[in-house]
Design a protein that fits this description.
Elements lengths: L6 E4 L28 E4 L3 E4 L19 E5 L6 H8 L3 H7 L12 E4 L5 E4 L6 H7 L4 H7 L13 E4 L40 E7 L3 E5 L5 E3 L4 E7 L9 E6 L5 E10 L6 E2 L4 E5 L9 E7 L8
Helix pairs in contact: 1-2
């Protein structure tokens, strides 16, 4: 099988240990540096942003229980439907994680396959982009962008659209029973103390464990981001929304885990590159869905040492 025919799949598991705090965060607003990659695993499959950057979204109801971030090189004759079936994800999973417009892919193109889920809505009489956004506590721009329609598009009854970052309200909720907006997933892995270092020097944790076993670590814009452990870069995404991650990096480690670094302002590595622990891989930013400069640090397959 040729390189173009190969599908590279990495499974993530992560846990680590902190570096000494060297620098305080250069902001007085504790709410800054929050929001990236708040990804929720639905049915074990997918990342759905809860209230901050998300990793992408797929159709609700996808039953895949895989939490692997994969890469795939498009072969002659491939289309989004066949690739989606191959990985048992929705077409939207591929579209959103690669910022594809018009369903066009090309031979030789490398696609990132994130296991993700989203909220699906069937249009009823009177629905508008704005009313749907309000119903699901979502962003009208995100809805129109992901569904390739204009913000003032007249929806037809029966149309099915996807709601990025959408939240389905419980029938009855009281102040004491409201569930947090960033439910945690994927945090039940083994402990790997000492294997990982803190991805930034100093800074502050502005959001604890949320989404897919992630924390938000805030510092100043342009601060260096370090590889938490040695391994191979499998994703080095420069540009694009990428489901809320913005520019982001994924490293596969020899222990079978993955670490993800979101909202990067500058990516300094490339897919396939071998990196060592502590190597600068990029700079802190606010790309994607973010309220301030921070790194969304996600670990797949083990406990996140920076969460508790």
């Amino acid at each position: 099988m040729t390189a173009k025919a190969s599908a590279e799949t990495e499974v993530s598991r992560v846990n680590s240990q902190n570096l000494a705090i060297l620098d305080p965060v250069r902001t007085t607003d504790a709410n800054q540096g929050r929001g990236g990659g708040d990804i929720t695993i639905i049915g074990g499959t997918a990342l759905m942003s809860d209230s901050g950057p998300v990793g992408t979204m797929a159709d609700v109801g996808s039953g895949v229980t895989n939490d692997t971030i994969s890469t795939y090189i498009v072969r002659k004759g491939d289309n989004l439907q066949t690739i989606a079936k191959m990985f048992d994800v929705s077409v939207n999973t591929i579209i959103w994680s690669n910022d594809i417009r018009g369903s066009l892919i090309r031979e030789g193109q490398t696609l990132v396959i994130l296991p993700i889920s989203g909220v699906e809505h069937t249009v009823v009489k009177g629905d508008t982009i704005q009313s749907i956004a309000k119903k699901y506590k979502a962003d009208p721009y995100d809805i129109s962008s992901y569904n390739n329609i204009s913000p003032d598009h007249k929806l037809a009854i029966g149309d099915v659209i996807i709601i990025p970052d959408g939240e389905i309200a419980s029938p009855v909720q009281t102040r004491s029973t409201v569930v947090g907006v960033n439910p945690l997933h994927g945090a039940g892995g083994p402990n790997m103390d000492g294997y990982y270092i803190r991805p930034i020097a100093g800074g502050v944790k502005t959001q604890g464990l949320h989404g897919y076993n992630a924390v938000d670590l805030a510092t100043y814009q342009g601060a260096p981001i370090y590889a938490a452990a040695g391994g191979q870069v499998i994703v080095a995404s420069k540009g694009g929304w990428n489901g809320g991650y913005g520019e982001y990096i994924v490293i596969s480690h020899p222990n079978g885990t993955q670490t993800l670094y979101g909202h990067v302002s500058r990516v300094d590595v490339y897919a396939g590159e071998q990196v060592i622990k502590g190597q600068i891989i990029g700079l802190v930013g606010t790309t994607g869905k973010s309220t301030g400069p921070h790194v969304h640090f996600e670990v797949r397959g083990a406990k996140n040492p920076f969460g508790p």
